[in-house]
Design goal:
Elements (H helix, E strand, L loop, with lengths): L7 E4 L2 H4 L5 H14 L5 H8 L4 H7 L1 H8 L1 E12 L2 E12 L4 E7 L13 E6 L2 E5 L10 E5 L16 H7 L3 E12 L2 E11 H7 L2 H13 L4 E8 L5 E11 L6 E11 L5 E4 L15
Antiparallel strand pairs: 1-13, 2-3, 2-12, 3-4, 4-5, 5-6, 6-7, 8-9, 9-10, 10-11, 11-12
Helix pairs in contact: 7-8
């Protein structure tokens, strides 16, 4: 068994990084991104999107643009519908795209009676692994549950109640078809809107090493490997918002479940602190079925 050691990563915003030897690196990244995005010119971006195949190529690069950005804050929303019932799970946190580490607080909906508030689940996201605290199901409150995302039938695109922000962007690496729908605005930022379909099998082949197994599992476990999406990119090519529509078969009722997963990214360069749990803090007992 792999033994996890503590990992503490800080990603400083650009204004705090000055004087610590990072300003030159940040400037170099900014220049590289501008050159790669037609000089950060809106006219150039619009003209490029009009060329056949250009939207697909742009979306294939979206995850790389996030890695260049370093970090951001994130909000997530997951809507599930089955048998006339619809529930929404929301999350909020931060993500480090270079280290592939994130932290989210995920809030589950109340029980049907609306009388029992639920404590947020803390999720730590790492390559190939999900850690959850306040999981319930008989797990002590001070212990973490560790999950191998490649062992999940959905690759943790749905199971955790939130799609890993970097995995959400890496799904776009599998874009097969895409159309540029024009400019709009997301949370006060001007963005370019794309609509298309991604193939999870193709995304897995192009994904970073830590996410390949999870995306391969999702390609096999979902009702279809094709994922319709709407993606909103800023003029640096960074994902500001992406909405995927997944479909899987409920294991108990054998009924299709429609899932809409939305990821909103903002405040790029935000400070990120992620500390993975020690082995002694990970629950090794049996998890009760809920």
């Amino acid at each position: 068994m792999t033994r996890w050691r503590r990992k503490h990563v800080d990603v400083l915003p650009p204004e705090r990084a000055r004087g610590r030897g990072r300003a030159v690196v940040a400037a170099g990244v900014a220049v590289w991104v501008c050159l790669g995005a037609s000089g950060c010119s809106d006219g150039g971006a619009a003209a490029g999107d009009a060329r056949p195949g250009a939207p697909v190529a742009t979306l294939h690069r979206a995850a790389d643009r996030l890695a260049a950005a370093g970090s951001s804050k994130a909000r997530t929303s997951m809507e599930m519908a089955t048998g006339g019932t619809r529930v929404t799970i929301r999350g909020e946190g931060v993500y480090d795209y270079r280290e592939r580490l994130g932290r989210l607080k995920v809030l589950l909906p109340q029980d049907p009676a609306g009388t029992s508030p639920r404590r947020p689940i803390t999720e730590l996201l790492a390559p190939g692994t999900l850690f959850m605290k306040n999981r319930g199901a008989g797990v002590p409150a001070d212990k973490w549950v560790r999950v191998d995302t490649a062992a999940l039938s959905d690759g943790n695109l749905v199971t955790g109640g939130a799609t890993d922000p970097f995995v959400a962007a890496e799904v776009l690496r599998g874009t097969r078809t895409a159309t540029y729908l024009g400019r709009t605005e997301v949370a006060g930022t001007e963005v370019r809107h794309y609509r298309g379909t991604a193939d999870l099998t193709a995304a897995a082949k192009r994904a970073s090493a830590g996410n390949r197994g999870a995306l391969r599992a999702a390609a096999k476990g979902f009702a279809t490997a094709e994922v319709p999406f709407d993606a909103y990119l800023d003029d640096q090519g960074r994902v500001r918002k992406v909405r995927h529509r997944f479909s899987f078969v409920n294991g108990r009722e054998k009924r299709p479940v429609a899932v809409a997963s939305t990821t909103l990214l903002y405040d790029f360069g935000a400070l990120v602190r992620v500390r993975l749990p020690d082995e002694d803090d990970i629950y090794a007992g049996r998890i009760a079925e809920e």
